[in-house]
């Protein structure tokens, strides 16, 4: 019992320091991104060059920073062992219809590991060079 307590305290001290925060991406307009829910106004695609230019800095970013920067995801999937994936549509599709059904439209995807940091930044369909 006495060995577990220091280990748990150490673990609780180290976990919050995992990952980094990200308050902005140069050239990215978070307000217009968040206003274009489900990408139905087709405004998010204009933001992709800025995202792609700083894509590597998104790795290791904490969940709270992604939430603050990109807003609430259009879709969220919870996986095993507390991992989760955020989906942000980047083009209009059937998700723009009244019931917001899942669409095959291209999406920006953030995968978070068990510690709540970004482990993958992907597109549903890879983009061509811009």
From TrEMBL:
Record keywords: Signal
Signal peptide residues on this chain, from the entry's feature table: 1-19
Domain of life: Bacteria
Name of the protein this chain belongs to: Lipoprotein
Source organism: Hymenobacter fastidiosus
